[in-house]
């Protein structure tokens, strides 16, 4: 699976930890930056990462900033992206099962590395249940038209 990643300066440390973990698990990571701690604008990095998921270049995407809020808002502006801001394992599982999210966001200021990796693994390893949930995802997608 190919995964897009991006962060701003407030999420760099956690992004690097997650990227290493993903590569160790055998995933291909397309990193859209940032790659230093200089102050930057998260839309400049989150939008290209989300567009890579929307286009099918990447199957999933992971975004990180200080809170996760800004990058998740940006991602959800891209047609075809369903991004969830996650901070616990249960939400990670349910957002895949029920919402078929293709992107997730984390807040480095709120989620430590160990918990973040648990959330990432659950989110990546959980399948969409379809069924009654498919109708709801279809309705979400129709809102973009």
Characterise this structure.
There is one protein chain. α1 crosses α5 and α4 (89-99) runs parallel beside α5. The chain has a single domain (2-142), classed as Ribose 5-phosphate Isomerase B, Chain: A. The chain has helices at residues 12-24, 43-55, 69-75, 89-99, 113-125, 132-142; strands spanning 2-7, 28-31, 60-65, 83-85, 103-107. The chain is an alpha/beta fold and 145 residues long. Helix content is 47%, strand content 17%. The model has no long low-confidence stretch (mean pLDDT 96). The radius of gyration is 14 Å and the shape is globular.
Summarize the structure.
47% of the residues lie in helices and 17% in strands. The protein contains six helices and five strands. The model has no long low-confidence stretch (mean pLDDT 96).
Describe the protein's topology.
Layout: E1 2-7, H1 12-24, E2 28-31, H2 43-55, E3 60-65, H3 69-75, E4 83-85, H4 89-99, E5 103-107, H5 113-125, H6 132-142
Parallel strand pairs: 1-2, 1-3, 3-5, 4-5
Helix pairs in contact: 1-5, 2-3, 4-5
**End-to-end CA span:** 28 Å
Overall shape: globular
What profile does the largest beta sheet have? Answer: 5 strands, parallel
CATH architecture tag = 3-Layer(aba) Sandwich
Looking at CATH, which topology would you report? Answer: Ribose 5-phosphate Isomerase B, Chain: A
Mean pLDDT: 96
């Amino acid at each position: 699976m190919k995964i897009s990643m991006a962060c701003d300066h407030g999420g760099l440390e956690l992004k690097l930890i997650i990227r290493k973990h993903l590569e160790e698990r055998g995933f291909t990571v397309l990193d859209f930056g940032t790659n230093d701690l200089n102050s930057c604008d998260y839309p400049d990095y989150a939008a290209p990462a989300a567009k890579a998921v929307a286009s099918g270049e990447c199957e999933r995407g992971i975004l990180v900033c200080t809170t996760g809020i800004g990058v998740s808002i940006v991602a959800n502006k891209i047609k075809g992206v369903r991004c969830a801001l996650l901070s616990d394992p249960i939400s990670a599982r349910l957002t895949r099962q029920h919402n078929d999210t293709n992107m997730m966001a984390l807040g480095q200021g709120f989620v430590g590395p160990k918990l973040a990796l648990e959330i990432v693994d659950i989110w990546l390893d959980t399948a969409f249940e379809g069924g009654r949930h498919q109708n709801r995802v279809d309705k979400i997608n129709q809102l973009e038209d």
